[in-house]
Amino acid sequence: MLISALCEYYDDLARDGKVVPEGYSEQAVDFLVALAPNGKIESIIDWRLTEQVPMKSGKMKERKTSRTVLLPKRTEKPGIDFNFIEHRPLYIFGLNFDSGNLTPDDHTDKAKKSHALFREKTLTTLEGLDSPVINAFREFVSDWNPSAETENPALLSLGKAYLTGKYAFCLGGHPDVLLHEDSQIKSAWQSFREKTNDTSENLTQCAVTGENLPIARIHNKIKGVAGGQASGTVLVGFKTTAGCSYGNEQSFNSNISENAMKKYTYALNTLLADRRHKQLLDDITVAYWAVGGEKHEKYVDCLSYCLFGDDDKTDKDEAEKMLHSLAEKSREGTVSANILASFDEIDENVTFYILGIKPNASRLSVKFFYRQKCGDLFKAIAQHQTDIQIGKDFRPIPLWRLKNELKSPKSNKENIDASLLTAIFKSVIYGTPYPGYLLSGMMTRVKTDRTMNDVRTGVIKACINRKARARGQKEELQLALDTQNTNQAYLCGRLFAVLEHIQQAAATAKLNRTIKDAYFSSAASKPALVFPKLLMLSQNHIKKLNEKNTVFYNKLITEIVDKLNGEFPNTLLLEDQGRFMIGYYHQDQMFYQTKTQDNKEEQSLC
Q: Which residues, listed in sequence order, are joined to residue 352 by a DSSP beta bridge?
């Protein structure tokens, strides 16, 4: 399904006029080498574009960027290999740049070998061709001697940019007469391709299209994947004989035609080269697209904001308005089939694809691939955002924040397990219960760091509520403090927050260690063992409070304890420990909000 979907996306790109012609590659070029009719270098023209880039200070800075041109398909083979119309300086000039000097020497003789191959192959391909720029280029290739050009002023003037730059050729005095755009060069390239791409002997049924077509022996490499090789990594490949069958070699075993292979690799490389369609989630590269091409790019932008918090690519206000509206309907249980119709250019029946890949030792590994209708997708994302909210102010929480909260700040391991990320992603996309480890992992972080924030609390609440919803039960954990909730674990959490605030209110200076630092984990696991001791300690703290606070806290303690049925639970299981933490956070936030409101009232009286 993945390769078929990518081929479909290629067809969308073709309809929008965004497909590079068959047999060509987009290549960045920095400099034009202007040649005289006798093949001598007249000058090297800086062909880069200048763009204005905003700085952090707010000022604009000029930056040089390469031009993109179409050149005959570039080689993807490792090591020394030939390109029809070369752009690499080591091949063209046969010179290294070392400490400000040009030299043909290096310890592997790579410069000499590269230039020798370039000279031999280029002169062969130019045989029988005749035009001013071709003749000048032929003379350049024939006469150029790297050892005699180590002091070439045109090359030395480039400095370090000599080795990093990419080159094209033009006729001296005519920068518009470009070698790679010459009609005879294009015809020669077409003939060259026809000679080297004869695959008629491998004609069989394509597994993607169902047509009898030549099968691809080796698939093009995919670039732009985090952690992958710079030269690219294959998605389909057979490097060992163990993967081969029926006498087939290499990717003949996959039965994917040359045509389908070129389509899916081009489509995936295009997605991964476009920041609009790509995100990085730890070591998983996520690509996403909507069927239909350019006219449906708005869906891609909305997903970037709603799921990843990326507001550089879309109308943030419009996306947030849609997400907020869907979230409100989710809370009310009234999400209608045509809710998206009220937003401009949103068609709920458009198909959306989300792909997660990461490299392994030999090829790309597909971690997940999801297909969903646009309407169902955004409803599921809105439900996810609703579930993880804690507090009455709706604020979308991107996946990267959720992921970061699972990491230990003291751990050297940067990435969390890819299988957990995959399971979380599936829950978000399809609205299914979250993976069990998400709840236990987030609670472990709370116990270890003794820190509760809106993301951690929201995730714990979402895991418990979504699991209850899947069982057909009513959601018990609300956005804010629920004084009607009689769950024993929730009440214990509320009581712990009250006892902590009593300790802080009684202190005359900032405490280095509170009961939260000493008892939070044990209180969340074994309340009956910890709370009697904490209640005794609180009486000593209450004695230090003024009469107003004493009455307030005693009344609050009595109200909570009365609902505990006369005893504390001996042991709290995993979900109940989560309810304990939610109760603690809700009660703690209520104290904070009350204090903030009192400060505002005092300021208004001044």
A: 290, 372
User: Tokens 């792909």 map to which residue?
Assistant: 355
Residue 174: strand pairing partners: 171
Cα 57 to the center of its chain, rounded Å: 27
Where does 406-470 have alpha helices with state H?
A: 418-430, 436-449, 454-470
Q: Left (φ > 0), alpha (ψ -120 to 50) or beta: where does 232 sit? A: left
Give the Cα separation of 255 and 269 in Å (integer): 21
C-beta separation of 390 from 346 below 8 A: no
27's torsion region: left (phi>0), alpha (psi -120 to 50) or beta?
beta
Angle at 352 (CA atoms; ends 348, 353), nearest 5 degrees: 165
Give me the residues of the chain with pLDDT under 50, please: 333-342, 600-606
- Structure tokens that stand for 378 in this block: 């955004």
Q: In the 3-class helix/strand/coil scheme, how is 55-84 assigned residue by residue?
A: CCCCCEEEEEECEEEEEECCCCCCCCCCCC
How is residue 106 written in tokens?
């290096």
Structure-token match 């418990």, residue found: 464
Instruction: Write the DSSP assignment of 344-368 as a string of letters.
Output: TT--TT-EEEEEEEEE-SSSEEEEE
Question: pLDDT (tens digit, 9 = 90+) per residue, 341-381?
Answer: 445 556 778 899 999 999 987 789 999 999 999 888 888 88
**Torsion angles phi and psi, residue 477, rounded to 5:** -95, 125
| Helix H or strand E segment including 212 | strand 212-214
Rounded (5°) CA angle 447-517-591: 95
Q: Which residues of 268-300 are buried (b: 16+ CB within 10 A; e: fewer)?
A: bbbbbeeeebbbebbbbbbbbbbbbbeebbbbb
Query: In whole angstroms, what is the distance from residue 399 CA to residue 385 CA?
Result: 10
The per-residue pLDDT for range 237-264, each reduced to its tens digit, is: 776 665 566 656 666 667 888 888 889 9
